[in-house]
Amino acid sequence: MSTLGDRAAGGDKDGDGGTMGGGGTMRDGAATGVGRATGFDEAPGAGGASEGVGPEGDAGVGDSPAGRLQSLFEGRRLTPTQRRIAHSMVRSAADVPFLSSVELAELAGVSQPSVTRFAVALGFDGYPALRRHLREVAPTEQAADTASYNEYQQAVEAEIENLRHLAAVLADPRPVARAGRLLAASRPLPVLGLRAAASQAYGFAYFAAKVHPDVRLLHEGGTMLQDRIDAAVRAGATALLCFALPRHPREVVDALGYAKEAGLTVVTVADSAFAPVAKVSDLLLPAAVGTGLAFDTACAPMLLGRVLLEAMCDDLPDAQARLEQFDARAAVRGLFVE
């Protein structure tokens, strides 16, 4: 099953709303592209800032086409252009072994010489050698052709693939369980999400407040953001949860760096292990976004947020009692019509 990263990752950025890429499609994509992360892992080039489960712990993922690609990039310090190429390759892992250097360059929105330099940076003599290696470790057949689907169907198929990949990654529940413990223990619990990620942060905070005694939503930037982080630390916060989606605001990266300096453990849900927030995150949980429509779709990050809620509830002994109390009060108030 092919994914929808093929629709122009390149082009000049055009405001907050997205990117004018090939074919004139506007999307809310990252400057370095959007990749399908292959596990709860440390981003290559992140300087070892984030922790997670390495290749040995990625149950069911390391043997996938995306997992084998990811193993090529781990531990390497890549330039922004090279990260963009890596994103595109991971996103279309089943098709990459069959692409020419020109086609890969078009897919990633970079120049053909950049693809050649990327292959050399990975230790190959050139792109043909890299492609031969990928064909040796990849399935012998390309993914099923979805060219007959219209663009709306293709977008849905891409999101289904993102969810399948998330399911494979969750075969190892340890990173999510660790994140749940960190979030449950933090009193208060600040939840950060700006711009495109604000709705993800709001949704998590809304439900988390039903079971956690003190959740503080940070969904507006500006000069007050660091003040609110300081206030949370003074009140006893030990961890911060961040939702970071493309395009990645510089303010989010700065805020996470500030939070770490203030002593908070930063747990981040991001679109990729290559995301700019990796270097300022202690635990990065990747979930890919869809790029087949004018604006990115974030079904996998949203679902991962709900999984985090479940893990957090497991470490809150009174979570069930709080939910039952809420339901009782809601019935008395006639809060819901059903």
Task: Walk me through the structure.
It is a single chain. The chain is an alpha/beta fold. The protein is built from twelve helices and eight strands. The chain has helices spanning 65-73, 80-91, 101-108, 112-121, 127-137, 151-169, 174-185, 198-208, 224-234, 250-261, 299-314, 319-333; strands spanning 12-14, 18-20, 26-27, 189-192, 215-218, 239-244, 265-270, 283-286. Strands 5-4-6-7-8 form a five-stranded parallel beta sheet, with helices on both faces. Strand 2 and strand 3 form a beta hairpin.
Summarize the structure.
By secondary structure, the protein is an alpha/beta fold. 43% of the residues lie in helices and 9% in strands.
Index terms:
single chain; 338 residues; alpha/beta; 5-stranded parallel beta sheet; 3-stranded antiparallel beta sheet; 12 helices; 43% helix
Low-confidence stretches: 1-39, 41-61
Radius of gyration: 20 Å
| Helix-strand topology string | EEEHHHHHHHEHEHEHEEHH
Residue-averaged pLDDT: 80
What is the tally of beta strands? 8
> What is the percent of helical residues?
40-55%
In whole angstroms, the N-to-C terminal distance is 40 Å
